[in-house]
Amino acid sequence: IKRMVDLDLSGKRVLIRQDLNVPVKNGQVTSDIRIQASVPTIEKALAAGAAVMVMSHLGRPEEGQYDDASSLKPVAERLSSLLGKPVRLQKDWIDGITIAAGEVVLCENVRFNVGEEKNSDALGQKMAALCDVFVMDAFGTAHRAQASTHSVAKFAPIACAGPLLASELDALGKALETPTKPLIAIVGGSKVSTKLTVLKSLSEKVDQLIVGGGIANTFIAAMGYPVGKSLYEADLIDEAKRLIAAAKQAGSDIPIPTDVVCAKEFSETAVATVKQVADVEADDLILDIGPDTAKNYAELLKSAGTIVWNGPVGVFEIEQFGNGTRVMSQAIADSSAFSIAGGGDTLAAIDKYGIEDKISYTSTGGGAFLEFLEGKELPAVEILKSRQ
Ligand code: 3PG
Predict the structure, then answer these.
(1) Ligand 1 pocket check: which of 18, 20, 21 to mutate, most ligand atoms within 8 Å of Cβ?
(2) 21 CA: nearest ligand 1 atom
(3) What is the value of ipTM here, to two decimals?
(4) If you average pLDDT over residues 363-371, what whole number do you get?
(5) pTM to 2 decimals?
(6) Catalytic residue at 322?
(7) pLDDT digits (tens, 9 = 90+) for 244-267
(8) Which atom in ligand 1 lies closest to the alpha carbon of residue 365?
(9) What are the backbone dihedrals phi and psi of residue 60, each rounded to the nearest 5 degrees, phi first?
(10) Is residue 315 a contact partner of residue 287, using CB atoms and an 8 Å limit?
(11) Strand stretches in the chain, DSSP E
(12) DSSP secondary structure string, 228-244?
């Protein structure tokens, strides 16, 4: 893949696709991690003498019409303050942008354009006509084949990977393709069904697969233990059994919690009780891994050469069910392994426990991070390969 840093951008019109799809509440950006991550790329292009046009989606608006609620206005303001220079938000841009070297224009939400999500070539061609160089830097949207991530890359005079996309691919490749062993993955979150392909793919690659959250409940049930009223997926119990057996066969392991934190209700004021897995009652909800399990998992992580983390192991947003995720976070932070983490809830946990600086690489991808873990090809990366 061509890389932006290897190109001469002086005097060039450079169109950068970023993933600036950030949470916005009452017209304010509530987490700017993705905007911050895009800044070095824009600064590099400016320093190289380019005129910089940035495009991104925000949310999932209806195509073909402007909608205030999905405007990139709050993003333009934050980007401008992070860059320390004006960022002009352009509402109508698809038919042409007037810009000089050293300036930054943010194109209004790409998803207002008809044909964006259908990966229209007519739209991709128009985007390509805006620039001399197209830079794909939106790792978080690299799993989408859409006009601004895929089609544009077919028609732009030059199409390359931006520094953020390149570093995401390097870090994930290092963790999964050439990991320092043992490789331990932690997959939490609520449902096995949404992460089944990830679990399957990881169970073949890793030395140990630690499951948490609602996902662990399905595995606990698969081992024949009661799960009470807990969130779990009865129809995936056989699948969970197969995964455990397949992992054993491959010489790896999917450990099952030995103790859990239960409550009778899901609320901020619920009383938390630690129980052995065999003692879970019919009206119990399992909301976290227990302290012994957390300690054992933390011990396992000590020996890891590489750690991949996606998804909290308990309902960490509620204090009394946060111990498991806190202990795991601390263990990852203390480990000398190469660690990589991704996904919205995972980043929120990293933020809550203040371990940002202790993770080797924090991915800006949610769905894209998962698809990479699944071993899928990312279409926006594939098209860049074809343009080498
Ligand atoms: C994300 O937040 O995962 C990406 O920005 C992709 O957004 P999408 O799921 O709306 O395509």
Answers:
(1) 21
(2) 5
(3) 0.99
(4) 93
(5) 0.90
(6) no
(7) 999 998 888 999 999 999 999 999
(8) 3
(9) -130, 70
(10) yes
(11) 13-17, 24-25, 28-29, 51-55, 88-90, 104-107, 133-136, 158-161, 183-187, 208-211, 259-263, 273-276, 285-289, 306-310, 338-341, 361-362
(12) TT----GGGHHHHHHHH
